[in-house]
Specification:
Keywords: Cell membrane, Membrane, Transmembrane, Transmembrane helix. It comes from Micromonospora haikouensis. It is a multi-pass membrane protein. The protein is mainly α and 304 residues long. The chain has one domain. It has 12 helices and 2 strands. It has a two-stranded antiparallel ribbon. The protein starts with a helix and ends in a 16-residue tail after the last helix.
Length: 304
């Protein structure tokens, strides 16, 4: 293969690996702007990946499986929101417990279940797909990739231009003042978590029925934590957050491509590379930018 072919392959792979991160990051961005540091995004993605394959296998439709995966993400978000905002359990504890619970449950279920592989259909745009390098990356993708292109501006508009988004940002910055002005703080935070669950569910489901076509134990492999790192890397701005997703996606693509290109490196180091990059990004950007003032701070008054 020529250098151009290698670059095209890496970019195309990077684009595919970015998609589940970008879906989930759009949701995590909303949750954090509302003041909830959603650790359970890993559980949302992993549960959705399993649910999507299970439903796709049962129905024979990868698209129905994708929708089911999104609903699994919403279900995890519903549990998280009620435990942390109604029962007032520490949100970090809830997130970690949900991550462990979903990992254990899916690991058990995959050993006692047999599923057939399914993938959503691929869109290949004539003529444009033949453009060197960028053609395969942009114009030969599975259809949820183009759904993502609609989700991104919708998420930005919801947070930055809608009344709901204004209240959401107020809740994340000063929940006491928001409460005095008549905003139900914990209700807004639960709504933000549900949006996060929907998009993280789409991300996890895409990983299963879009990228791989099957489910493997611990399939997300910490991608939820990469999503959290991307939001911090992006300084709680959607555009920068998505740039972080692209960086992590390309790093993962490079990790997969280097052995095929004849580059010999320690396998454990290759596997750890995207996560080391995420850790470095968090260390640098978490101190360089200000997070929402009420991020990860519980609020009790107004809980119903």
């Amino acid at each position: 293969m020529s250098a151009a072919d290698n670059i095209a392959t890496i970019l195309s792979s990077g684009a595919r690996l970015t998609v589940p991160l970008a879906f989930a990051a759009c949701g995590e961005y909303v949750a954090q702007r509302a003041g909830t540091l959603n650790i359970s995004v890993e559980a949302m993605m992993l549960g959705a990946a399993f649910g999507s394959i299970a439903v796709a296998s049962a129905t024979g439709s990868a698209t129905i499986g994708l929708a089911a995966g999104a609903l699994v993400g919403v279900a995890v978000a519903f549990v998280h929101g009620n435990l942390s905002h109604r029962v007032q359990i520490n949100t970090f504890v809830v997130g970690l417990v949900l991550n462990a619970l979903v990992l254990g449950l899916t690991s058990y279920l995959i050993t006692v279940s047999t599923f057939t592989g399914h993938q959503v259909w691929q869109v290949s745009v004539p003529v444009l797909r033949d453009i060197p390098i960028v053609g395969p990356m942009l114009f030969v993708q599975r259809w949820p990739v183009y759904l993502l292109l609609a989700v991104i501006p919708l998420t930005w508009w919801l947070v930055q231009r809608s009344r709901w988004g204004l209240e959401l940002r107020a809740v994340g910055e000063n929940p006491q003042a928001a409460d005095v002005s008549g905003i139900h703080v914990n209700l807004r935070r639960r709504q933000a978590l549900l949006w996060c669950g929907l998009l993280a569910g789409l991300g996890g489901a895409y990983l299963a029925v879009g990228e791989v076509g099957s489910f493997n134990q611990n399939m997300t492999a910490g991608r939820g934590y990469l999503v959290i790192a991307a939001v911090i890397f992006g300084a709680w701005r959607l555009g920068r957050t998505l740039v972080g997703c692209v960086v992590f996606g390309l790093a993962d693509a490079m990790r997969l491509a280097l052995p095929a290109l004849g580059v010999t490196m320690n396998s454990q180091l290759l596997i750890a590379a995207p996560y080391l990059l995420a850790l470095l990004a968090m260390l640098v950007f978490a101190t360089a930018h200000r997070e929402p003032r009420a991020l990860a701070q519980p609020f009790q008054r107004g809980t119903t």
